[in-house]
Design goal:
By secondary structure, the protein is an alpha/beta fold. The protein has 2 domains: 134 residues, no CATH class; 165 residues, Rossmann fold (3-Layer(aba) Sandwich). It contains 14 helices and 9 strands. Strands 3-4-5-2-6 form a 5-stranded parallel beta sheet, with helices on both faces. A 4-stranded parallel beta sheet has the order 1-7-8-9. Helix 12 crosses helix 14. The radius of gyration is 20 Å and the shape is globular. The two termini are 23 Å apart.
């Protein structure tokens, strides 16, 4: 039976939110052994060695838990394996010792639990892994800076990655100095590791499939794991679900058929859709859509604004999931 997505109202207990802080299915098999450094870019091999050292449970770093926690910051462009290494770190330590989530998932956690309860819950871990650290929202950045500072002061270690625009490699890179300026006092505990190299996915201009036919949408939505939604209904429904519950909202969805997609009307809608796309991508879902081309989802004004990198990431992930949908429905 297919899944009725619109109208879902998942109830997620605080302990479930914490338990969900593990690498997503997309990185379920990530390990240090499966990270293959490009020999043409020695920084990749050096980064692998640094993260292995950070993970080692019997090093001086982890024996000295009475002092402040330490930090590791992986700086690099898209597709050089930062998330793979961060997920490998979390897997190496295990779910009882390492929490793993994106920057947005942690800010959503603070919103759902409150700052004090979120800090108390996270301080139980040896390492908190923060993927895709963002500086586009001053309020969220200050919250995370305070959270990281208080966690490290209490002895918890933090590992983070940046998210750099594909066309900002080099002179436009999200630099360590910017990071240090934003997080102020906590910066003293961070060691910055630069990872260079091309995008292993060879990400170039977006190349979406043509809008899906009714037959393809029906095929994708049918059966266990399939879901369908009219775009306007889905966008309206997201208002009623806290972003910390988007993972539960799409639980079990393997294939999503979107009907009558139209450009988003405002930035609040756009940011909710970005969060939903991230949770679907993390779970290796596939998507087909009718209506306008997915490249038109975000308006030109949105793409010129401060959240541009979020929208680019969402479009790239949508493209990947849309092509995967075609492979999924292709006869063997």
């Amino acid at each position: 039976m297919s899944i009725e997505l619109v109208g879902r109202r998942p109830e997620v207990a605080p302990e479930q939110l914490i338990a969900a802080l593990v690498p997503p299915p997309h990185f379920a098999s990530a390990s240090f052994d499966t990270y293959v450094p490009d020999p043409a870019h020695p920084s990749q091999g050096a980064a692998l060695a640094e993260v292995r050292e950070f993970a080692a449970p019997h090093t001086r770093r982890f024996r000295a838990r009475k002092g402040p926690g330490i930090g590791l910051y992986l700086d690099g462009g898209f597709g050089v394996g930062k998330t793979h290494l961060l997920a490998s770190l979390a897997h190496a330590l295990g779910p009882s010792r390492a929490a793993f989530g994106t920057f947005v998932e942690y800010t959503n956690l603070v919103g759902a639990l409150g700052f004090v309860k979120a800090r108390e819950a996270l301080s139980a871990f040896a390492v908190v892994c923060i993927d895709e650290f963002e500086l586009d929202d001053p309020g969220d950045t200050l919250i995370m800076a305070r959270l990281m500072r208080e966690l490290t002061d209490a002895g918890t270690c933090v590992a983070a990655t940046s998210n750099t625009l594909p066309d900002a490699l080099g002179e436009g890179r999200f630099a360590a100095s910017d990071f240090q300026r934003e997080i102020q006092a906590v910066a003293r505990v961070f060691e910055t590791v630069r990872i260079d190299g091309p995008d292993y996915r060879h990400r170039g201009s977006l190349d979406f499939p043509a809008p899906a036919s009714p037959e393809l949408l029906d095929e994708l939505a049918g059966g266990p794991g399939g879901a369908a939604a009219v775009w306007s209904d889905l966008v309206a429904d997201l208002v009623n679900v806290h972003a910390s519950r988007y993972g539960a909202y799409v639980a079990g969805v393997e294939r999503l058929a979107l009907r009558d997609v139209a450009p988003l009307e405002d930035q609040n809608q756009a940011l909710r859709v970005v969060a939903l796309v991230d949770r679907l991508y993390d779970r290796d879902a596939v998507i087909a859509a009718s209506g306008v081309a997915l490249t038109e989802l975000f308006t030109p004004d949105m793409m010129r604004g401060g959240y541009r990198k979020k929208y680019l990431r969402a479009l790239s992930r949508l493209e990947s999931m849309a092509h995967a949908a075609l492979e999924h429905t292709r006869p063997v």
